[in-house]
Fold this protein.
Amino acid sequence: MLGSLEAGHTSSVRLRVNGEWYELSLDNRVALLDVLREGLGLTGSKKGCDHGQCGACTVLVDGRRVNSCLLLAVALDGARVTTVEGLGEGDGLHPVQEAFLDRDAFQCGYCTPGQICSTVGVLEEAAQGYPSAATDPDHPAGEPVPLTGDEIRERLSGNLCRCGAYPNIVDAVRDLS
C-alpha cells in the first residue's frame, strides 16, 4: 500500500501505466505523481512545485495532458497513464523525444519530461482543432490549428523551464507540426 492511513482509508485502484496494468491498494489522498515515482519507480515525471504551477509532473491520462501532482490516484481507476518512459516503442524514442534531442531543447533537463509529455498532448489537441487563447478567432471550428510560434508558446505556457530553453523547445515543436 502506498501511503499510511488507517485501514478503511485506502482503495483498490487499477491503472494501465505505459501499457502495463497495475492493481494497487492506495491511500485515498495520494497523488498520481507519488504513485508513479514512489510506488512504481517511474521517476521521469518530476516533482517541481507540487502545486500544479510548473508542469514538471505532466503526464498523459487517457491521452490528455495533466499535472499528475494534482490528481488523486483513486479518481483514476481504469485510466491509461503514459509517462515519458512509456512514449517510445521498445528502445526507440518517440518523435517528440527525438525532436527535443535534435534541437537541444533542454539544459538541466529537470522540466524536459513534462515538456515532452505536454508537447505530445499539444500536438494531438492542435490536430483535433482545439483552440487556445492564441488561436485566430476566425479559424474554422474543428479544423487542425496551425502551430505557430505564438500558438506553441501559449499551449506550453504551463510548463516552466528555469534554464530558459524556450526558443529550442518552440523550434522542436515547430519541427513536428
In short: The chain has a mean pLDDT of 94. The helical segments are 32-39, 95-102, 112-127, 149-155, 166-176.
